[in-house]
Amino acid sequence: MTPALALEDLCKRFGRIHAVEHLSLEVPSGQMVGFLGPNGAGKSTTLYLIPRLVHPDSGRIRIFGADLRRDFKRAIRSVGVMVEAPAFYEYLSARRNLQLAARILGGVRKHDIDEIFERIGLADRQQDKVRTYSQGMKQRLGIGRALLGRPRLLVLDEPTNGMDPEGTREILGFLQQRVRNDGLTVFISSHLLYEVEEYCDTVFVINQGHLVASGNVREILKPQEHIVRATFVGKVPEPRWLRAQAPIKHVEAVAPDTLDIMLGAEDSAWLNLYLLQAGFRICALYPRQKTLKEFFLSITGDHGHA
Ligand code: ATP
After folding, report:
1. What is the pLDDT of residues 194-232, one digit of tens each?
2. Is 142 helix (H, G, I), strand (E, B) or coil?
3. Atom 9 (ligand 1): residue with closest C-alpha?
4. Domain 5-220, second-level architecture
């Protein structure tokens, strides 16, 4: 099946900064696909290359097989893009905002706008001024605007940036429904591991402009290592001593009586017994979710890389 989006050997530099370096990836159609990377990894630059807000130094982009450079009109017709926080005429109603955007786009019927308000769950608030909207509602309206041209691929740059957990769930759940119910493909950048873990099917991981991992979310993000947080009563083991024990990969003191210990997925029971036998008393031992930095550490094996 033709991928919704194919990036082939893309490069983009800003002076001496290599924002995107020989990046190739294929976004499968009909999925929610995450584009994960820490701040400054090159996510926004990559996404800006798609609507040609930024021009690549080299490489090629295809959207549903159409070459963006040679066949721009056909390629761009199938994609809706939302980069940065969407801007609106705050003193006009949401409906009026979409009508104005539709006029610029052309070929959008009244019925299409009605349908979009239904789909973004704002039908009963469409006559309200945008300035009365919450951030989550504005993001949904931005997505609605990106849907005006009936795209098959939606590209979104960190749509949940700065939002509270409820707003985040609202946006990502909404997008997931569009993928499941309407067959839309969503390519969404994020620097939050749990967002991608929970809502995406496929993930591409980028760091310093390079693709560092890709594949099925469950396989790529499935922890090879666990991090357990251990709280001790009485004496606490020396991190350096613990690090020297075979299954332990990393130890960090997070409080005078508490250590975060990274170890193999099956090794928590061993740790508990081993520390007990060595004369330490653990009063709490529970798994902690990996941070993006730790995730990078586990896939690149390099402390300084992320
Ligand atoms: P964030 O999560 O912080 O948005 P990002 O993964 O989207 O980060 P980019 O914004 O693509 O990363 O930036 C990649 C690199 O390119 C960074 O080093 C950034 O400083 C640099 N960069 C991006 N845009 C420009 C520009 N217009 N001029 C100069 N450097 C830039």
Report:
1. 888 889 999 999 988 999 889 888 777 666 677 889 999
2. helix
3. 42
4. 3-Layer(aba) Sandwich (3.40)
pLDDT single digits (tens) 267-301: 888 888 899 999 999 999 888 776 766 777 666 55
Residue to mutate, 7, 11, 14, 47, ligand 1, most ligand atoms under 8 Å from C-beta:
14
Nearest atom, ligand 1, residue 44 CA = 7
As a whole number, mean pLDDT of residues 53-71 equals 93
Nearest-CA residue for ligand 1 atom 15 is 19
Residues 289 and 287: their CA atoms lie apart, in Å, by 7
- Which class in CATH covers the domain with range 226-288? alpha beta
Structure tokens at 213: 């991992």
pLDDT tens-digit profile of 220-275?
766 667 788 999 999 999 998 998 887 888 898 999 999 999 888 778 888 888 99
The residue ranking higher by pLDDT, 163 or 136, is 136
C-alpha to C-alpha distance for 184 and 100, rounded to whole angstroms: 24
Residue 69 DSSP SS3: coil
Pocket of ligand 1 (CB under 6 A): 14, 17, 19, 37, 39-45, 191
Q: Where do the structural domains in the chain lie, given as residue ranges?
A: 5-220, 226-288
Half-sphere exposure of 180 (CA within 13 A, CB side): 9
Which pair of structure tokens corresponds to residue 229? 């947080």
Quote the tokens at residue 250.
Answer: 């990393």
CB 150 within 8 Å of CB 109 = no
The predicted-structure confidence for 37-56, as pLDDT tens digits, reads as follows 888 899 999 999 998 889 99
| H/E run at residue 232 | strand 225-233
The region, left, alpha or beta by phi > 0 then psi within -120 to 50, assigned to residue 91 is alpha
